[in-house]
Amino acid sequence: MLEQLLENGESEMLACFRERFRPEDLAETLVAFANGGGGSAVIGISGRVRPKVEGVQDIQAAEEAALEAALACTPPLVLPLPQQITNNQQTVLLIEVPPGLPNVYSLHGKYLRREGPSNAPIPPNALRQLLIERGEVGWERVRPENVTMGDLSEMKIQSYVARIGPPADVDPLGWLYRRGCLTRDAQANYQPTNAGMLLFSITTERDYPQCELTLVRYTGNEMSDEFERVDIRTTLPDQVRRAELWLGEHMRRGSRMVGLEREDWTEYPPAAVREALVNAVAHRDYTVRGEGIRIAMFVDRLEVYSPGRLPGHVTIDNIAAERFSRNETLVQVLADLGLIERLGYGIDRMQRQMADAGLPPPEFRETAAGFLVTLRNKGMNVASNSTIDTAKWEALGLNERQIGALVFLTENRRITNRDLQDLSPDVSPETIRRDLSDLVDRGLILKIGQKRATYYILR
């Protein structure tokens, strides 16, 4: 990774710093990266581009200096954790500024951008255009009225800090301040921001009624009076976890026989569904009130709707290539928790996963006030012999061999002990006999004949 970064030397996307550097210089470079398309700063590089930083203390000091440099920017930069890269027993520190940040950044009133390997002031016309494109400080960094630190869950904060580790556990509140989850009042006391409340509040439903995620499963291809519904009103990390579990439980899945091999399938690639879910939670416009995220499962498709149209310069045509984070803090904390990929390549992944599963590509559409993602399945008929929904058998507690036997019987008139032995060659004949006997006792199959002439059919 380091060799790839350094192959062509410093550039518009790469800056190298010696092991002894001025935090002010690093802050200027971070600002320049943030006002452009992002970039990487490597600390611990000599004039000959050879890593020289050695020792844990040096690295820890460099990490602290990097975080302070990000905090010195206006507004403070929320960045992924610095990465230590060791090569040939030498260690450098990599600081990445993601593309698509939502604000215009400055340092002591100076607005900078990268021009080749250098930082340069942004010309007035270009600065004016950038301000128009990116707007002012986002809603997530604003302190809401009538909330205090007592509205935050200590348990959720401790769980988050424990996941981050040493950079956060020394000063948890300071870390949350750097992340944009807290701000300071006139007396320098910490207070929650909107982002902090959405991530760690114990009063989410009271303070943010628009922060709701509704999951619905319909029995047909259109909305009807027959449906199963659940509403999730809690903090964003819990929303993602609970919604992902619900979707996994309600997604059709099953098996088919390919020769004597059992092949499992799911209605949609779970990873693609997860991308659609976390993107909706992380990137929706939380200033839109009166409407939450809606996820609807139909027989032929899955629809994920989030309030707010596409942000910044992102359009339907360039959505797979462009990056713009409406909710910088929310995205970073969800990335810290392992719930989303900060680099912003979720759309690419979703398209690739659908293609690998032989499904149509995801469909993206802007509505009058929101954004809709549609994933389509193969139009599976769960009663067909080619794709059998095994969820009901799994719910009965049947083992893999028994489910395989039932799948086999949906495509063949009968099954014998030898057939099931061929499906599970590593299993003893006595275990095979018990599996079939249990299916008979459960009333799922019928036993025909005796001894060597015995076979089984579906009941």
UniProtKB/TrEMBL annotation:
Residues 20-121 form the Schlafen AlbA-2 domain. InterPro entries: RecG_C_sf (IPR038475), Schlafen_AlbA_2_dom (IPR007421), Schlafen_AlbA_2_dom_sf (IPR038461), WH-like_DNA-bd_sf (IPR036388), WH_DNA-bd_sf (IPR036390). It comes from the Bacteria. This is Schlafen AlbA-2 domain-containing protein. It comes from Herpetosiphon gulosus.
